[in-house]
Specification:
It contains 10 helices and 6 strands; from the N terminus they run αααββααααββββααα. The chain is an alpha+beta fold and about 475 residues long. The chain has a domain at about 1-30. Strands 1-2-3-4-5-6 form a 6-stranded antiparallel beta sheet, with no helix packed on it. Strand 3 and strand 4 form a beta hairpin.
């Protein structure tokens, strides 16, 4: 028995160790742009609250189906009368009433459609809100990558400058260099250290804010990096424009607005259509329990309303066994109940015309904006290439300056200044690559694509074009 317990204990310990290792490995899983965006969206308390409110409003809308069902009401009354002359009376009445909408010209249905459209627009706003949260995480991710790359370049440059300063110090001791050169070298080193210190402070704050966006205490390992050698394939302006006209969030919102305004116009146009309801009543009455008398009645209510007059007509008939029959009719007419309502239809038509005009403007502009976004990406790519070429030429210049130093044509402080210039060129290449990432993401946002899907879309367009050309 003890042996079995010992084996089970060892097995549980092994599972615990394996789970801890797995959990640690999972926590160290490199984080991509898309995963950072998803984590920030999932962690946002404001977005969760807004989505919960949206779910409540959708629940309220579902319960609105009750307007199509019979409406019941119960009533109970007891009227006691004590008289000095005559017999006392103790009347007790219990009744149930039912009212059923038969037809209202579709006003109830259109009202529910308008409410549903409001919910769809609200849901679309939540999607935009989630997109903004995701974009803030991607921007923070990109800023951290850029700062880390620049910090690495500056640290490498500082190491090289310190070595040159050490050599220069030896040369000053041997009388091969001037003391003023050593002072200039110290100034350059102080500037380099100050830049590194400032960048480290900024980077630590960026990393903290980025981790908070995703709900982490510390920043995990990042899978992405700023690659100055990364080349990107962009879709043609026509293909980007076609996709934008189909998926652009602003254009989709404009279509939602047009549909909603059309429904509002239809609702305003049908507001004069009369509504028809059937009513029914059943009651028990008497002076003592158990109640021995009962009655019932059925009727119809017609409501005809417009800005010029409002007419409500009701009629009913019933029976109070064993002998009595009842019938009644009532008509209420109100002239000019709301004359200003006559402008409701015109206002709805004007609002619809405005939404259509705005949609046409956005639709016409969308192709130009897509072409401009693609052109911006191409310019950012050209800037990356030029910055990379400049960095390569700067490295070659440093090599040549080292040769000139050995030949005695320049001083070591001149070489250090050339190395500082090379550092600036390397940083410019990193900034150009970061600007390319930003331009690429802006185009993806415009086309409603997730991070990294732009290259896939461009390749699919290229493949389809090649297939058509082969045919």
């Amino acid at each position: 028995m003890r042996r079995i317990i010992a084996i089970l204990f060892r097995f549980a310990f092994c599972l615990l160790i394996t789970g801890a290792v797995y959990a640690d490995g999972f926590s160290q899983k490199p984080l991509t742009f898309a995963e950072a965006a998803d984590l920030s969206v999932a962690y946002s308390a404001e977005l969760r609250h807004s989505r919960a409110s949206q779910a409540l409003m959708e629940g309220v809308w579902k319960w609105g189906l009750r307007s199509y069902l019979p409406q019941f009401s119960l009533n109970v009354s007891e009227n006691d009368r004590l008289q000095e002359i005559g017999a006392d009376s103790f009347l007790k009445n219990y009744g149930i009433s039912v009212e059923q909408l038969i037809w209202d010209g579709g006003k109830t249905s259109m009202s529910r459609k308008l409410e549903k459209m409001e919910l769809n627009i609200s849901s679309s706003k939540l999607d935009r809100m989630a997109l903004e949260i995701a974009e803030s995480a991607i921007t923070a991710y990109r800023n951290v990558l850029s700062s880390r790359a620049i910090l690495e370049i500056r640290k490498t440059a500082l190491t090289v400058l310190e070595e040159q300063r050490r050599i220069l110090n030896e040369e000053v001791k041997l009388g091969l260099a001037l003391g003023v050169d050593l002072a200039n070298a110290d100034i350059n080193l102080a500037d380099a250290k100050l830049n590194i210190f400032s960048l480290q402070l900024d980077l630590s704050e960026m990393e903290r804010q980025f981790a908070e966006l995703m709900g982490f205490d510390s920043l995990p390992v990042l899978a992405e990096k700023v690659d100055v050698n990364r080349s990107v394939t962009f879709p043609a302006a026509s293909a980007a424009g076609a996709l934008a006209k189909e998926r652009n969030p602003d254009l989709i919102d404009a279509r939602f607005s047009i549909t909603k305004k059309q429904a509002e116009l239809k609702y305003a146009s049908n507001s004069w259509v009369p509504s028809l309801k059937l009513t029914g009543n059943f009651g028990l009455s008497g002076q003592h329990y158990p109640l021995t008398r009962y009655n019932w009645s059925v009727g119809v209510n017609i409501d005809f309303s417009n800005p010029w007059f409002q007419n409500r007509f009701s009629a009913q008939m019933g029976w109070e066994p064993p002998y009595d029959r009842t019938a009644g009719m009532q008509n209420n007419l109100s002239p000019l109940p709301d004359p200003s309502a006559m402008f409701g239809k015109k206002q709805a038509a004007l609002a619809l015309a405005l939404e259509r005009e705005n949609y046409n403007i956005v639709f016409e502009r969308i192709g130009r904006v897509a072409a401009s976004a693609v052109e911006k990406c191409n310019l950012a790519e050209q800037k990356r290439i030029l910055s990379l070429d400049a960095a390569i030429l700067s490295a070659e210049r440093c090599r040549i300056e080292e040769i000139r130093l050995e030949l005695g044509q320049i001083t070591r402080i001149d070489l250090m200044e050339t190395m500082i210039e090379k550092t600036q060129r390397d940083i410019a290449a990193v900034e150009a690559a970061t600007a390319l990432l930003q331009a690429e993401r802006e185009l993806e946002k415009f086309l409603d694509l997730r991070p990294g899907e732009l290259a896939i879309f461009a390749e699919s367009i290229k493949s389809s074009s090649k297939s058509r050309s082969d045919l």
